[in-house]
Amino acid sequence: MAMVVDYQHDLSFPYWTSTRRRFDPDSPFFSSGNIERELLAKQVALDLTEDERNQLEKMVAKDARGVFCPIVGCGARLISLEDFEDHYNARHTASCSVCSRVYPTSHLLSIHVSEAHDSFFQAKVARGYAVYECLVEGCGLKFKSYKGRQQHLVDKHKFPTSFEFFKKALPSKKQRQKNHRKQAMHKKDEEASSKMEVENETMDGLVSAVSKLSTSDSSPSTVSFGRRHTRGLTFVPRSVQHEKRADFRLAGAKR
Amino acid sequence: MADDSAASHRRDPIKSSVGNVAAQRRRQNAVTVGKERRESLVRAKRLCRVGPSADGDVPVEGNDMITDEEEFLLEAQTSSAVEDLKSTVAYQGKGAMQKRVNALRELRRLLSKSEFPPIEAALKAGAIPLLVQCLSFGSQDEQLLEAAWCLTNIAAGKPEETKALLPALPLLIAHLGEKSSLPVAEQCAWALGNVAGEGEELRNVLLSQGALPPLARMMLPNKGSTVRTAAWALSNLIKGPDPKAATELIRVDGVLDAILRHLRKSDEELATEVAWVVVYLSALSNFATGVLVKTDVLHLLVERLATSNSLQLLIPVLRSLGNLVAGDSHTTSTILVPGLEITDGVIKVLVKCLKSEHRVLKKEASWVLSNIAAGSVEHKQLIYSSEAVPLLLHLLSTAPFDIRKEVAYVLGNLCVAPTGGDGKPNLIQEHLVSLVQRGCLSGFIDLVRSADVEAARLGLQFMELVDMGEFTYAAHLFSLLLI
Q: For the C2H2-type domain, which residue ranges apply (chain A) (predicted)?
């Protein structure tokens, strides 16, 4: 008898109960393990020569050598992309459990949580208290309104006027891609342009947040990385193999 | 335009037949080729990806691998290839078949050079009805193969492009039959796998058209790429969310035996595909879970976990184990009985996963342990005295958040015995005292502080257990938290 305990709607505070937990295959619980698999949901059947296939395989293996964390000042050396992701998530991001927006610091996350999800906060605002904190750590100033804080960021801390700490909805993927392309063209950073792709919503959110937040040029204009294979994985696009003979007669599409 | 004749088998390198000088220059530079490949690999993944965030639109980043000119040329060639095909299909005279095969082959080449086939151009030119005609019964193998190959790559595109294959499905399914040659059957399975990978709607269409039994039968032989392709296609076909297909699959004659055989003996790549089939069987179908646990599948999964180092294999194997434990209390209570060798084996491989560098393995192994720890007191004692606990304590303070949450479940479950009613929990003092003494509290406090509601609840509930166990020290900490 499987018990799937759903506490989201349970406002009481039950004691710890020792029960089995079962998840559906498409549950978010499994999503990190599913990343690679999702990529294989559809496969193009390529027509590669032996050489091309070898080249591809070698290239994939070489890539597993390591990356440096792209955030300036961090410089952490990470041996695999999973490692990279772990490191990035641990050190450079914080995500809101209510709405999944991602922020580059826990400080920003906690500001977001107060401002977006805390009714007590809203009550204080209504009563005229200065509760909107300046986003720049160390500044400490507080404001009575979102706009007031905004203005302060622009005036005092040179934020771009287009900056929006709280966006109503994340821009569509297409828009984000367009934004990245624009930024990439301006930056012309070799390192950043050997980029790997942003893989999911939260990472995209992170990129927007980071790139918009930096008041210096410290973060790369496009912070992105894809989920490549960690050590031990070699994804080579599948190709249909056929034997080489003078007249094109298919002996068999063997792997 | 460099195009090799049908007789010669020399394949042109990918870019040359587009005839662009710049492309050839790039090709000469090995480093650049490497870079292109890497980027194209990444793009291939994005093309093939079907994620929940897909808003019906495959993102296209500035396509600096192929210029606009080249793309235009490719599209023009594709359109004209489809036109050629049209005229050969209409033509009934002498050498018609050969002409048709040549035309198909040309189209296939255009559609299989790169990870970004000119699918839209092909569809616009009317490729599908022609390809369907080429699939008619009695056609030569070469023709069937080329047509199925074209359809495979069209199906690998955007959702609406995959859907375009609808008219072809009954024929593709038919050619999976036992009378078809293996390469043809495999190519059809590949195309159908792409269609099934698109989404629930298409999966249901395939199932209602009877795709499952023939694909299942293709999984029965001992080896071969056909078996692997069929297993992959099946995993896409049964992934639900409707459990019907999973239940139907396990009932097909010979499938259960084939699954066990492949898990036991096959190479890692095939075992990986089969393991994914087991993942879906065990996650979706109680019937399938019941059938599976009566076999020696747990031994086989443990064996793979113990001996393999391939992450691609370990993930679905571990998850299958987890699903079998989670899906049926029978597994823990009757099969993984403490004291039996199989139980020790399971704990051992879970410990191995906890030691892994891979985050997914650590997280999901913790999840499995938490479910075993939700069993009898003997189960809790078994885990408590194993190598798992020091590892778990370490993970509780150092691992990424999602792992720590699962670890919390394990540790908490170790301290609470199963109760009948919903009164106060039945504490296992010995475990609780020991874990607290070994410093687990700070980890739970961190969870309370996290923004995640579930984690905070876990932390508080554990605190409460400690409080009930009457530790003054812990009670102090707890009250500190409330400030």
A: 96-117, 134-157
Is A138 in a helix, a strand, or coil?
A: coil
Q: Which of A4, A6, A13, A18 to mutate to test the interface with B (most CBs of B within 10 A)?
A: A18
pLDDT for A192 equals 36
Q: B90 to chain A, minimum CA–CA distance in Å?
A: 24
CB contact under 8 A, A80 and B194: no
**pLDDT for residue A42:** 83
Contact B61 A177 (CB under 8 A): yes
Cα(B365)–Cα(B347) distance, integer angstroms: 10
Domain ranges of chain B: 328-482
What is the rounded distance in angstroms from the CA atom of residue B33 to the CA atom of residue A62? 14
Q: Residue A41 has what pLDDT?
A: 80
Cross-chain residue pair A42–B155, CB shorter than 8 Å: yes
Answer yes or no: are the C-beta atoms of B325 and B286 closer than 8 Å.
no
The answer to whether the Cα torsion of B67, B70, B74, B80 is positive or negative is positive
Q: Nearest CA of chain A to the CA of B203: how many Å?
A: 12
What is the rounded CA–CA span in Å between residue B53 and residue B317?
26
CB contact under 8 A, A194 and B183: no
Residue of B nearest to A204 (CA): B53
Beta bridge partners of A67: A78
Domain B328-482: give its CATH code. 1.25.10.10
Q: Which residues of B touch A250 (CB under 8 A)?
A: 141-142, 145, 183
Q: Is there a contact between A33 and B360 if contact means CB atoms under 8 Å apart?
A: yes
CB atoms closer than 10 angstroms to residue B423? 8
| B-chain residues near A180 (CB < 8 A) | 61
A102 beta partners: A95
Query: Is residue A25 a contact partner of residue B239, using CB atoms and an 8 Å limit?
Result: yes
> CA of B213 to nearest chain A CA: how many angstroms apart?
20
- Report the complex ipTM: 0.78
Element (H, E) at B231: helix B225-237
Q: What are phi and psi of B427, to 5 degrees?
A: -75, 145
Distance CA B365, CA B407 (A): 9
- Condensed to tens digits (0 to 9), the pLDDT of residues B15-32 reads 333 344 544 443 444 333
Smallest CA–CA distance from A113 into chain B, residue: B451
Looking at residue A154, its pLDDT comes to 81
Alpha helix positions (H), B308-428: 311-327, 329-330, 341-354, 359-372, 377-384, 388-398, 401-415
- How many Å apart are CA A61 and CA A56, to the nearest integer? 9
| pTM as predicted | 0.67
Which residue in B282, B290, B375, B292 sits closest to B337, CA to CA? Answer: B375
Q: Where are the alpha helices (DSSP H) in A40-157?
A: 50-63, 81-87, 106-117, 119-126, 146-157
A78 DSSP β-pair partners: A67
SS (H, E, C) B286-330: HHHHHHHHCCCHHHHHHHHHHHCCCHHHHHHHHHHHHHHHHHCHH
pLDDT of residue B68: 78
Nearest residue in B to A111, CA atom: B451
Query: Helices B200-208 and B182-196 meet at what angle, rounded to 10?
Result: 140
Encode pLDDT of B386-431 as tens digits.
999 999 999 999 999 999 999 999 999 999 998 766 667 888 989 9
